[in-house]
Structure formats: structure tokens, C-alpha cells
Amino acid sequence: MLNFAPLPDLLALTILVFVFWSILRRRAGGKLQAWLLGWIFILVHFAAQLLGGRPGDLQTFAFAVSAIMLELAGVAFIFAAGGAYYSLRMRWIATTGLLATLLYILIDYLGIEATQWYYATAALLFLTVIAALVRDPNSRAGERHTYALLTFLLVVLLFMVVYYKKQDYGLDCIYFVVYLMAGVEYWRKFPQRTTGSLTAVVGLVAWALVFPVSAYLAMFRPNLHIHDSVWNLPKYIVAIGILLTLLEEQIDHTHHLALHDPLTGLPNRRLLQDRLTKAIERAERNGARVAVLLIDLDHFKQINDTYGHPVGDEVLRIVATRLQMRIRKADTIARAGGDEFMVIVSDLLQPHGARVLATKLAADLNEPIVLGAVRLPVGASIGLGIYPDDAQTVEELCAKADSNMYEQKRLGK
Fold first, then answer.
1. What mean pLDDT comes out for the span 257-262?
2. Is the pLDDT of residue 138 over 60?
């Protein structure tokens, strides 16, 4: 007969998979695909449990499928949390974890007693993860130490179940470490803690703890019965955390687009005005100066008319990069519109510094831009306005820089 106990979770996970699939249709991304794949594995894991009530080989097959799907879901969650940056590490973790799980299933299927040899082999497989980290040029010392600690924890757990002669719980040890790895990767991925990331991390850690806690209760507190829905609760906490994280990322992305130029990635005029206002207020309090440099490209219209807008767009990106390389991190460069850029130099003590910067920027932009076999002369006219020497307000300062820029263009300098 069929085991209908997992049916509510199966229906809930079906809805969850549909939700992630709907999001993926509108927002492509490798991480989102990995999350979707992980939840599909969990869905198949519960579907296999429906056959758990059937006797004989079918029950053994259902157990094997359920165990492998749970392992693969954990690996997919690690990848989704860490991203493509961890591709080398992920191949090792996926291979070793799956081999250890298959070895356990094979021993159980053949009726061989799971002795210390299995656990030594499983520990050796996971130790290869540490070897991969040592060879991975992208892994940092802190990451290697974390994974070494997790592997050591796995070895301790495996030897504990051997010591207490509870070899049936070997898989719980493997699952515990895999899902704990997913929680660690998610924690590393989001150094700025948000509600979504914290919820996902808490859910993944709780999901990992389900395996040793349930094994401990089964071994030492067999009379204490906890409903399956309690053990499955962390799965839905993880799902809520992931969805919240995706929503937070979308809000941040929308906010960034509202304040930045989509072509160059520089702040737009709206953000520029806000930063200029704050710079003037700070200069007024500290008795310092603020300089505004308005940069207008001299030959951009000819480039656009001769070579087309794609080349013109590439020229604007290269100009933005050149300007960013010259200014300080404390200053602001923005695309004011079209072929105009504006630089805010804050906390100036003497106006001479702004004039020196303007000369250097003009020299940088006078260097031709090379695209393939084409050399494109750009050049720029730069107007300068200094607070409080030239103006007292944001509008007056920008107008002064604009007036000086047109004067420079008229003089051909």
C-alpha cells in the first residue's frame, strides 16, 4: 500500500516549485536555476516516500531514490548559495557526497553490515573536498579552515554512530554536514545581513540539525515521538528566506537603476544633485571648498554620426572608465546626460587642486580611443566652478561650471 503521510508536503512543494519556475521565467540566473533544481530534488524525495509502504524491492528502490534526491538537493543548495564562483569546489562536493550516499545505499541493498570500513571510506571521500580547496586558487584561508572543520565534524559524527553501534544513522551524518555547508555558504554570500538572508541561514542550519537531533532522539529517547511536520518546518523557512532574499535583491536593483546611468553604471543627475547638496553642506560646516567639473566631449557627435550608436556607447563607457581611474574614491563622477559628465571634488582646501585635476582629466581624454583598427579622437572641454568662491548654491555652482565649459569650447581649448 502507498504511504500517504508525505502527501501534504508533496502538494506544498509542488506549489513551491511552480513559484520558483514562474520567477525563473522572468528572471534568468544560474543561482535561481540551482534553487529550482534543489526544490525539484526535494519534491522527488517526497514523491519516492509515497512508495515507502510497499514491501520488497520497491520499498528499497524508493529508499534509494529518496536518499539520493535529498543529497542532490543539499548540493544544489550549496551551489545556489555560493554561485558559479565555487564551481570547482562544487564538483568535488557533489561527487564525494553522492559517492558516499551511494555507498551507504549499496551496502544496505546488498545486506552487508555497515562496519567501520564504510565510515572510514565516507570520511576519506569528504576529505577530498579539503584537498580540492587547497588546490582551488579562488579559495581563501578562512574558507579552507571552515570546510576542514566541517569535515572533521563529519568524521567525529561517523565514529560516534559506529561507537554506539548505530550504523543506520550514517546518512544522517552526511546530510547534516551537506546542509550545514549550504548554510555556511549562504552566510558568506550576504555579508550585509538582511531579513531574507538571515531567515534562509536559520532555516538551512535548522534543516541540518534535524538529522542529528532526530537520530539522537531515535537512539536515546525512543519514546519521544515528534510529528513529521515539525521536522519538515525548516524546509519552508528556507523557502521563505530565499523568496525574501530575491525580493530584497529586486528592490535594491530597482533602486540602483533609479539612481544610476544604465549605460556606464555611473550615478545619474538625480543622485549627483543629492551628493552635491550634501558636499556643500559639509563644506559649509568644515570651512572647506567643493569643486564641480563639467566635462563635455568635443567630437562625440561626429563619432556617433560616422560609426553609429553602438560605437558611441562604447566610447562613453571607455570615457567613464578613464575618469573613474583619475578621481579619488571620496569624489563623485556622474553622467549628466548625453556626452556630458560631471565630477564633484569635495573637501578642497585650495582651488588649485581642482584646476590640476581638470588639466589631468583633459589630458586623459585627449588620448585617442582605439577600437579595433580605428583610432577615435575624443577630446573634452571642461568647465570649473568652486564653492564658495564662484557660487553659493547648487544651482549657481552648476551654472558657473556650465558657463566656463562653453567658454572653453568657444576658445577651442
1. 88
2. no
Q: Report how far apart, in Å, the C-alpha atoms of 111 and of each of 96, 160, 304 are.
A: 23, 22, 75
Q: Which residues pair with 335 in a beta bridge?
A: 341
Q: Give yes or no for a contact between 62 and 52, defined as CB atoms under 8 angstroms apart.
A: yes
Contacts with 320 (C-beta within 8 Å, 6 or more apart), sequence order: 264, 265, 266, 333, 335, 341
pLDDT (tens digit per residue) in 213-252: 888 888 778 787 777 778 889 999 999 999 998 888 888 8
Question: What is residue 368's DSSP assignment?
Answer: P
In percent, how much of the chain has pLDDT > 70?
74
269-411 fold: Alpha-Beta Plaits (3.30.70)
Give the pairing type, strands 369-371 and 332-337: unpaired
Convert the pLDDT of each residue in 290-334 to its tens digit: 999 999 998 888 888 888 888 989 999 999 999 998 888 888 899
The structural domains of the chain, with segments of one domain joined by +, span 7-259, 269-411
CA distance 132 to 100: 17
Q: Which amino acid is at 291?
A: A
Tell me the three cell numbers of residue 352. Answer: 588649485
CB atoms within 10 A of CB 296: 21
